[in-house]
Amino acid sequence: MDSVRESQMSPRPTRIILGLGLVTAGCVVFALSYRYDPSHRAALPALLLIIVGFSIFGQGLRRHPKPLATQAKEALQTAVVGSDPLSGMRVIVTSAGVRTKPTAISTEKAVLAVFLAWLIPGLGHWVIGRRAKAVLLFTVITVTFAAGLWFAEGRNMNWERNKVFFLAYVFSAGETALAWLFAGALELDRKIPLLDLGFLYTAVASLLNVVAVTDVMDSTTRIPEEPE
Amino acid sequence: MTLFAVAAAEFAYLPPICLAIALVTSAARRDDMRGILKQAARSWLILTVGILIFMLVLSFGMEWLLPA
Questions:
Q1: In sequence order, what are the residues at sequence separation of 6 or more whose Cβ sits closer than 8 angstroms to the Cβ of residue A10?
Q2: Residue A23 buriedness (CB in 10 A; 0-12 / 13-18 / 19+)
Q3: Interface pTM (ipTM) of the complex?
Q4: CA atoms within 13 A on the CB side of A106
Q5: Domain ranges across chain B
Q6: CB contact under 8 A, B31 and A89
Q7: How high is the mean pLDDT in each 10-residue block of chain A (228 residues)?
Q8: Chain A residues within 8 A of B21 when measuring between CB atoms
C-alpha cells in the first residue's frame, strides 16, 4: 500500500519543473496569441495554463504533495471555478497549515454571512464571530479599493471605460456601488497618469473579497442534527 | 544607481498590492492574528520577488518573441 501510494506521488522536483514548464508554455502561447490571433482566443487558455502551472509549482514546494492527478484536477478546478485569477499564486503562498475550526451555524445565518461578506468585506466574518479577522479584511480590502480610486481620481468607476475591470469590481458589491454613485459619472477630461494603476488596485481589492467570501463559507458548518 | 531608481519607480506599485494580497490570502483558513501576520510576511516576500521575476522574464521573453 505504501509503495503504491509512494509511486503515485511524484517527487517534488518533477512538479516544480512541470509547473515552471506550464507557466512558460502559457506565457509563450499568450504572447503568440496577441501577435498572430486577432481575436485573442488563445489568451484565455494561456492564462489558465499559467495559473495551473503556478498551482503545480506551488504544490511542488509543499512538504507532502498530493498525487499529481489530484493536484492537476484541483489546480484546474481552482483556475476555472475559482473566481480570482490569482488562485494559482494563492496555492503557492498559503502553507499546508491547519484549517480553522468551522463554526456551526444555521443555514440561513450562513447564507446571510456570505451575502454580507459579498456586500462589505469583513462583514460576513463579523456576523459569524471572527471579529479580529473581520477588521483586518475590511481594512486591507477597503484601503486597497480606496487607493485605486485615488490613483485613478475616481475615473475607474465608469462601465464604458473598461468593462473587464468593472466586472471584477462586482465581487465587492457594496463598495463598488458606493463608489459608482459618487464617481460613476466623472468624465475623463484630462490625462490621469495613474489611471491604469487605479484600475489594477480596485480590481485586485474586489477580487480579494472573493477570498474573504470563500473563507466565510469555509469557516461555517451546519449545526449537527440531534440523533432521534 | 540611476537604473535602480528607474526600476524602483517602475515597480513601486508592486509591494503594496502584494502586501494586500498576502494579508488577505494568509487570513484565509487562519484565526490567530500572529499566525496570519507571520504567514503574510513570508507570502509578501515570495509574492513580490516572484511577480517581479515573472514580469522581467515575460517582458524579456516578449521582446525576444515579438521584436519591435
A1: A65, A67, A68
A2: buried
A3: 0.82
A4: 3
A5: 2-65
A6: no
A7: 46 76 82 67 69 76 64 61 48 46 79 92 92 93 94 86 80 90 83 86 89 84 63
A8: 86, 89, 204, 208
